[in-house]
Amino acid sequence: MNTILYSDNFRTALHSPITREHEHDLRCALHGLMLELLQHPNRKHDPNLQGMLSQCRLRLRTLQNLVDATRGEQEFAMQRCDLRCMLEDLCAAADLLLRPHNRSVIFSAPHERIELACAPRELTTLVLELIANAMLHTSGSEITVTMQRKTRAITITVESTGRVDLDKLHRHAQQTGSGTSAMLRTAWLHHGTLLWLQRNEKSVASLKLSTGLNRTQRSDEKLPTDLNSNSFESSYDSPDLVDLLADQCSVVYVGLAQVN
Length: 260
Prior knowledge:
Layout: H1 2-5, H2 8-15, H3 23-37, H4 47-69, E1 79-82, H5 83-98, E2 104-108, E3 115-118, H6 120-137, E4 142-150, E5 153-161, H7 166-173, H8 179-189, E6 193-199, E7 202-210, H9 241-246, H10 251-255
Parallel strand pairs: 2-4
Antiparallel strand pairs: 1-3, 4-5, 5-7, 6-7
Helix pairs in contact: 2-3, 3-4, 4-8, 5-6, 6-8, 7-8
């Protein structure tokens, strides 16, 4: 552990400012430091090692929120995604990580395949942020994630028993780099909307994603009706449940760093 404390990765990862200018070096150093820490499986219960891992994940989460909150349209890469499969594995991984805290994540969606052109990493981060918010700010033991197909849209709702401070959310939305501003920016770049409300003693976050126009298209352009067309060149292979849990640098560990 002492050699890690004096490594270049340690100094860069834990002391560099979290800015867009430092993103590449900081991300590389954080991943490098986490890999160094994870080379000591016999010390996985060492509180110092776990504390350092947690600090790395929190800094990665803060960095990702800053990047997503300030992302330009030219940086937004859309891919064909099996959205149902991606969210099902993500919620199952979140459920297993949150079980020790006596909280569960329940996923509900139609059984058919649901494809959507989206930015998978950013959308994954958004959903994890919604789950983390529910974990932090509500008291219900169950966090329910529901996906529904609507006319020309797909909706994803995250709800849990309890009340969220909507005024506080509004203030956070004005702070560049906050989780709330990052989520709203990601929804906007998907040509979607993200709303919070109280309903039947539950706090609900509702994300609506358009299956029609995206922000790179003009309103007079002909829309693609087939997601398998050449309009979106690449398909995204989302990590499965085993990959998400086995890789302690995965998005689910980073996204839930504040609550796990």
